[in-house]
Structure prediction request, 388 residues.
Amino acid sequence: MFPSFLVFALVGATAAVATAPHSSLKFSLSSTAATPDARRTRVAASTAASSSNVQLVDYFDGTDLQWYGPISLGTPSQNFTVVFDTGSVSLEVPSIACGAACANQRQFDPSKSSTFEDQFSNSSVTFGTGVGVEPVNGSNWKLDLAFVADALVVGDISVPLGGFFLITNQTATFLPDPFDGIMGLSPDMGDFFDSAGLPAIFGMDFTPHSAPGGGAGELTLGGVDTTKFQGDLVYSPNVDGQWQLNSQALFVNGKLALNKTVPLIFDSGTSNILFVESTAKAIHALISPNITTNPDEPGTFGIPCALLPSLPASISIQFAPIAGQNAFNLTIPSSELSLGPFAKTPELCQTLINVSEGFNLVGLSLLKHYYSAWDIGGARIGFAPNGF
Ligand SMILES: *[C@@H]1O[C@H](CO)[C@@H](O)[C@H](O)[C@H]1NC(C)=O
Ligand SMILES: *[C@@H]1O[C@H](CO)[C@@H](O)[C@H](O)[C@H]1NC(C)=O
Ligand SMILES: *[C@@H]1O[C@H](CO)[C@@H](O)[C@H](O)[C@H]1NC(C)=O
Ligand SMILES: *[C@@H]1O[C@H](CO)[C@@H](O)[C@H](O)[C@H]1NC(C)=O
Ligand SMILES: *[C@@H]1O[C@H](CO)[C@@H](O)[C@H](O)[C@H]1NC(C)=O
Ligand SMILES: *[C@@H]1O[C@H](CO)[C@@H](O)[C@H](O)[C@H]1NC(C)=O
Ligand SMILES: *[C@@H]1O[C@H](CO)[C@@H](O)[C@H](O)[C@H]1NC(C)=O
Ligand SMILES: *[C@@H]1O[C@H](CO)[C@@H](O)[C@H](O)[C@H]1NC(C)=O
Prediction:
């Protein structure tokens, strides 16, 4: 059975950009970025503040490739759960205006909040990668939005007035989700940490279901949780101001699959791995000649499920270091190869890699094997083994 994982990346999407946010907003999750230098200064100025942990729930449905956690909005607070998504830029939760189209999600009621401010700006957003296993087809992952502002609480961080989006309609693809909305954690959200007096960095832990006490995760705002990883964090610099790192080479079971520098997007809202077709084929060729494209689901690959148990499929990606450190590998273990059987051809199992159009992206099947430190001020991402 296919779990219905979502994949949230705004790659190739029509991004919702709010116009003329209210001048009294403390921050807006859709605001434009400060310059890297300005951000660095802020980090240095606020290192005394203490970080805050948010516990995450593992959406385990056969495989564990999506985590979510709590936030509150309004006065008095109305509670929601969101996917914390490094692949998107803004916060979206359902509004009561969404009605039946958001029937499974909690819905924000502006009339019950004394601090609510409508920003009178409507827009819509279409997500560019709906992978997991639900195919993207045209605009089948679309949200209609209203830009508003209200009090926001995430972990111990309270922002008196933050800009965000209320979902006023959504496509049926979102309806089965066990969470309510999405909170983008892009490198442009330095203002959020600044408004809380915290360093502009967050840590993410996605402990797999199979780990002892597994199925939990943690988002740390304004720092990293050193109890969640072993050794030191190794860093690679952001490319083009995004959560994107330069991969230098790609290896499958120790053999070279790609010897070329390629930018890779790191997306905590995406379950799978997306590569351009030539790279996807090169990796699969080194795993098994029995991996074939699946014409039923264009862009996907399948392998006879019977071959899986004994198949080594360790994918190592080498990354460019920051100054003074060495290049390093991040490795996706063989256990991540299969997403489970295809619905129409159950003897065939879907692999973790799907073909993208013109970009490369890694999601939770890689991230859940490392602790990750998303350093906005330093414009870099750090990694350390989490032991699973
Ligand atoms: C919202 O969540 C907080 C923290 O978990 C909890 O204390 C509070 O009771 C919740 N409020 C509602 C209305 O459920
Ligand atoms: C895989 O990628 C292709 C090409 O981008 C896309 O058409 C297809 O819907 C994707 N498949 C899934 C299952 O997401
Ligand atoms: C995509 O959607 C269109 C209608 O919008 C439908 O005709 C087509 O069959 C769909 N394609 C897939 C692969 O689901
Ligand atoms: C536009 O935004 C307002 C709130 O500002 C909301 O009440 C309304 O439902 C939105 N309309 C659409 C079509 O999304
Ligand atoms: C909500 O979106 C659906 C498409 O998912 C559309 O058919 C419907 O007309 C929309 N409803 C409103 C009130 O815009
Ligand atoms: C990454 O892994 C490959 C394959 O095992 C290895 O050849 C390469 O030296 C490793 N790179 C680093 C920097 O450790
Ligand atoms: C990658 O190619 C370069 C030449 O472009 C070569 O010097 C290098 O040894 C190759 N790397 C590996 C791991 O084979
Ligand atoms: C795997 O592929 C080989 C040919 O490359 C073929 O002989 C064999 O039957 C295939 N195995 C399965 C289980 O499909």
Observations:
- Residues 289-290, 304, 306-307 surround 2-acetamido-2-deoxy-beta-D-glucopyranose (ligand 8) (CB under 6 Å).
- The CA atoms of residues 274 and 361 lie 5 Å apart.
- The chain is about 10% helix and 40% strand.
